[in-house]
Amino acid sequence: MSRSRLPLSIALSDNPNTRPLIDGDVAPEGIALTPTVVHPSEMFWRQLKFGEFDVSEMSMSSLVISTSRGPTPWVALPVFTTREFFHTRILVRADAGIAAPADLRGKRVGVPEYQQTAAIWTRGALENEFGVAPREMKFFMERGDKSHGGATGFKPPPEVTVNPIPASTNIGEMLTRGELDATLLYLTNPNLVDRSRIDLSTDKRVRTLFPDRAAEGRRYYAKTGLYPINHTVVVRRTLVEQHPWIVLNLYAAFAAARAAVLRAGATALASHFETGVLGGDVKRAIAADPMAYGVKATRKVLETIAEYVHVQGLAERRVKIEELFAPQTLDL
Q1: CA distance linking residue 122 with residue 217, whole number of Å
Q2: Pairing of strands 31-37, 6-12
Q3: What contacts 42, CB < 8 A, 6 or more positions away?
Q4: pLDDT, tens only, 109-131
């Protein structure tokens, strides 16, 4: 006899940690997922504005901002499908006189969206690592109402200048014309939200602020212990209230998908260890997962992004981790 499964819609970005769920190689017990693969910029706007999906990835910062104002329509799972040292993605014009982070003071700086998580982490790193406060830069924001902030009622924090970029242009065009000196983040992925399309990767007028991005990421992690979280996963609150068992079943499925990624990596490297091309020190290192899910393994990172959201003037109060995640996941 076949057992019926609870049908749920789910929105995911396409990355190694979500692909097993998208492809159906991993499925949550008792749940039939209908996946929609969509770029995060569009996904978050659609979910925040229209609540289209039962389950979805969610901007960590937008969830914190929304929660600071009261209960949201979602309950979060401590699943973090993307993490990155976002401040290493800063691009600057080669002729703007920006040789170091301190040189960003007084500069015209682009940002797709002021409240997006990547931008918050970047401003946090600039202020705490290099002493450059947000108020010392002039921001130009590409997105308008069709955005995270458009759905959550974004207003520029006091003492910070955030100019809207006209709909007739975008960050890429303004950088190449010399109308911007830098950008915190540059997104060209085709979706309904982001407008930039110019490939700047080979444009000699633009370069990365940090010549060796990997080295800066390692330095930052060694000093702070922070591996910045970008997205979490949310479930419609009414569904959790009606079917509380889906919380841990969904979490287990995401954890299984992540485990599949780790197994694939271990399999790919097996011959390297067997032949001695890679040694035991590497084997021990990869046994630990820097992208581990769960509240316990990530509390410091989660508390930091909640703090940054408040300190940067995007929430009137500090949000507690316990307000964000389903109670049955807090001990994971």
Answers
A1: 12
A2: parallel
A3: 191, 192, 193
A4: 999 999 999 999 999 999 999 99
| Under 8 Å between Cβ of 303 and 311 | no
Q: In what order do the strands lie in the sheet with 161-164?
A: 161-164, 138-141, 108-111, 182-183, 91-93, 206-208
Collect all residues with Cβ–Cβ distance below 8 Å to 166 and sequence separation of at least 6: none
pLDDT at residue 2 greater than cutoff 60? no
Close Cβ partners of 174 (under 8 Å, ≥ 6 residues apart): 110, 140, 165, 180
Find the helix or strand (DSSP H, E) in which 89 lies: none
Spell out the residues 6+ positions from residue 169 whose beta carbon is closer than 8 angstroms to its own.
none
User: What residues contact 190, with CB distance under 8 A and at least 6 apart?
Assistant: 39, 197
65 and 115 in contact (C-beta within 8 Å)? Answer: yes
Q: ∠ CA(185), CA(200), CA(175), 5° rounding?
A: 65
Tokens 């790193």 -> residue = 125
Instruction: Tally the C-alpha atoms within 13 A of residue 293's C-alpha that lie toward its C-beta.
Output: 26
323 neighbors 303 (Cβ within 8 angstroms)? no
